[in-house]
Fold this sequence. Notes:
Blueprint: H1 2-19, E1 26-27, H2 29-42, H3 49-55, E2 64-65, H4 66-76, H5 87-102, H6 112-125, H7 136-150, H8 156-164, H9 175-183, H10 193-207, E3 213-220, E4 227-235, E5 238-242, E6 250-255, E7 261-265, E8 274-278, E9 283-287, H11 291-310, H12 315-541, E10 545-549, E11 552-555, H13 562-592
Antiparallel strand pairs: 1-2, 3-4, 3-9, 4-5, 5-6, 7-8, 8-9, 10-11
Helix pairs in contact: 1-5, 6-9, 6-10, 7-10, 12-13
Amino acid sequence: MGGLKDELLKAIWHAFTALDLDHSGKVSKSQLKVLSHNLCTVLKVPHDPVALEEHFRDDDEGPVSNQGYMPYLNKFILEKVQDNFDKIEFNRMCWTLCVKKNLTKSPLLITEEDAFKVWVIFNFLSEDKYPLIIVPEEIEYLLKKLTEAMGGGWQQEQFEHYKINFDDSKDGLSVWELIELIGNGQFSKGMDQQTVSMAINEVFNELILDVLKQGYMMKKGHRRKNWTERWFVLKPSIISYYVSEDLKDKKGDILLDENCCVESLPDKDGKKCLFLIKCFDKTFEISASDKKKKQEWIQAIQSTIHLLKLGSPPPHKEARQRRKELRKKLLAEQEELERQMKELQAANENKQQELETVRKKLEEAASRAAEEEKKRLQTQVELQARFSTELEREKLIRQQMEEQVAQKSSELEQYLQRVRELEDMYLKLQEALEDERQARQDEETVRKLQARLLEEESSKRAELEKWHLEQQQAIQTTEAEKQELENQRVLKERALQEAMEQLQQLELERKQALEQYEGVKKKLEMATSKTKSWKDKVAQHEGLIRLIEPAGLIFMDVPQRRNEVEKLLFCLWKMIMLIEEYTTSHVGCVFIS
């Protein structure tokens, strides 16, 4: 709402200025009543005649200034404005009030209608400060747009030359100077009035009416399904289509929002370059004249939908805002640079003053030095004269002194001879004293050494006595231990003797046991051979023998002479048992020994 208010204030400012006939900055109350009534009418704001009469009642205060009119304008008109009025009608009303007074009478290449459109464009591009002007950057932007719309090439060098000749006393052009600049054809040479008018209209549609794109295309009807040529006008949130480009007979609107989309369609039903616009409740089929137009329209509509999703303003308004912000930034930087330059200049001036002060001090010091040098030279002359007088007197005194020195020299020679003798005596005395001191030191050293040796001797003697006592105790202890050890040795020798005897006895017994073992072994071998021969004999006489337990034998299937064989076998078995018992007892004794 703040942007709309700023735009309205620019047009109202032109109207208020036009009513200020004597350029005093004030307008009569009757004229302001008429202006306020007209503003309420075109802006569709409820008219409050009571407030109007109350605010602008007839009294002796005289006309009202711009600042005096602003409170009423803000409170009763601008704060109640809604975005439902005709902007062109509003601008035309303000234009009508100011055109006759300000528009140049010289012939122009553009019509009054074109001048009105330039006036509206000026309000759009001008700075937000009063009196309204358009800065050179915006002039360049507008002229470039007009040149592109006329199909010509932009002459940058020509504009740079124009900027050089620009009046440095002002920051930009007023609206009437801008209309004159465009109307005199300086930047549209070779173009006729119709071409310039079409270019102004195209730029007006884009910047003021927010027309992003327009042109003829075929549209398919929703009821009869027939194809009809329409003039389409794309704006930030709507596509309107008309019977022709004069915009008099409007046939409908396509409302755009962030949910709409555009799709390319293949050729069908004899129609080419088709695309589809999908909205919330309707779908529109459209046919462009060629593929290039089709692609341009699709991209333009998609860009518009994308801006709606982002909530961004139209591209030209966003670009204008960026340019203004850039100018503000550059202005701030320039002001900062100027401030720094002023600070540097002030610092430089301070330095210059300091240098001037130093220079004056140096000049004063030089003058003082010259006076002092003059005084020094005068003093030097006086001192030289005095020195000459003193020198003559000194010569006489020196001659007298030389005579005295000669006399004193002989006396001095005698005195020196006596001093040398005294020095020799002193040196000899020093040597004697040194020898005596050295002898005393040697004597003291020897005395200390003797005392230390005596002390060491006494300590060693005490230590030896202690050692002697310890040795006596150790000898006594050793004698007792020696006696005890001797007793133990005797006992151990006895035990050793007994052990040796036992060992010899055991050795003898071992030898006997070995002999017995050898005898038993031989007997065992003989018994084994005898047993084997007996077993062979028994096997020859018996048919079948089976051993059933270690202590007994069972015979089965016995032939004749059973009793004799049974007795013989029993005797044989008993003899084998005796041999085994004997062998076991003697072998165990051998192993034990």
